[in-house]
Structures are given as C-alpha cells and as structure tokens.
Design brief:
Blueprint lengths: L17 H32 L1 H11 L2 H28 L6 H26 L1
Helix pairs in contact: 1-2, 1-3, 3-4
C-alpha cells in the first residue's frame, strides 16, 4: 500500500519547529568545535615551542581578528554545552513533551545568548 503524498525536499522552504532547530544547531556547533580543535591545538603547540612563538600567538589573539575568532570558539562551546545539558535532561525525562521541548529550546537560546553576550563583553 503506497501513499501518494507530496514530498518536499527543498530545505529552504521547510519550516522547522524550534526544538528541531536548536537540535540542529547543537550538531553544527559540535562540528564547528571539532574543526576549531585543529586550530586550537596548532596555536597551543606553537605557543609552547618557544618564547617567540608564544609572543606571536599572543599578538594574534589580542588583535581584533584574534578576539573575534576566540569569541566564535567560545560561542560554539557555550551553545553546545547549554544544548547538551538540555539533551541530557531530556534523556532523564525532563521536557520531553512537545510543550516542554519548546520551553527547553527557548531556555537554551536565552541562556546561551546571555552567556555569549557576557563573553563578548569579557573579550573586549
């Protein structure tokens, strides 16, 4: 028995619910952290090589581009952490209903947004 339903595969027209969007962003932030890990390990290794390498990394990180890069890493980490806590709570049965998922998604966006703004103030 085949159902003849229209299939919409155009991702630009699909309206995701807020819990799905926050879950998707959690995956994106995790992938971004994985990519940033390569850069962070390189800078850490270079800073430990010599005093000159340390001063080079320090100069880069205190430049505007370095501060923005560090804030992006911080923001990805904060969002991934807060959304991960939400997922752990859902595994324990907290907020797994439709209404609870919506409230949890709003809480993730508000808390991570507040911490990102606080981090931006701290970086500058």
């Amino acid at each position: 028995m085949k159902k003849k339903r229209p299939v919409n595969l155009d991702l630009r027209t699909i309206q995701l619910p807020l819990p799905a969007l926050t879950s998707f962003l959690h995956r994106v932030s995790g992938f971004a952290l994985f990519l940033f890990l390569i850069l962070m390990l390189y800078t850490f290794g270079k800073s430990l090589d010599s005093e000159e390498g340390f001063n080079d990394i320090k100069r880069i990180l205190f430049s505007p581009v370095g501060k923005i890069s560090a804030w992006l890493v911080y923001s990805a980490f904060i969002y991934h952490l807060v959304a991960g806590i939400r997922h752990l709570l859902m595994d324990f049965g907290v907020g797994h209903t439709l209404e609870g998922a919506k409230r949890g998604s709003i809480a993730v966006l508000v808390v991570s947004g507040f911490l990102m703004v606080a981090g931006a103030i701290w970086f500058w």
